[in-house]
Amino acid sequence: MAGLILPGQEVSFSPDDIIVSKTDPKGIITYTNSTFCEVSGYKERELLGKPHSIIRHDSMPRCVFKLIWDYIETGREIFGYVVNRTKNNDYYWVLAHVTPSLDAQGQIVGYHSNRRVPDKVIVESIISPLYADLLAMENSFSSRKEGMMAAYKHLLGILQSKGIEYDEFILTL
Predict the structure, then answer these.
(1) Which residue range forms the structural domain that includes residue 146?
(2) Which residue spans within 10-107 are E strands per DSSP?
């Protein structure tokens, strides 16, 4: 199984560093730490008030983001591998942990994401080939939405065949 073909150079960061961001409920960035800015190549002022999708890499399957949003909008946390795009169109992989931020009444007021350096062997041997297949499925449809939904159903089918949910799959790799 071939992996994703990612143009540009891979940007790395220290395993001791954590990329941190916070958003409002719609995914608009309200906070970034210096590591996020350094790795992504953006200045803080270029990120604040922008959709978090500003760093979405075109090679990242949209169905995985749908799955992540399905989790967090119901108040659950999730772990997932993500490939992001830098300001100058390079890329970087992360293992993201996304959690909802709740107010005193338990209502979601935003999201908090911590991202670490992922296991390169897992990315190359499992995640990149899986994402390449999902992306190819998404792109095989004339409608972006239909493609995303077909790939989403396919991903859910893979997980169902294993008897686990996505974050459990990610954490058992």
Answers:
(1) 19-171
(2) 19-23, 29-32, 78-85, 91-102
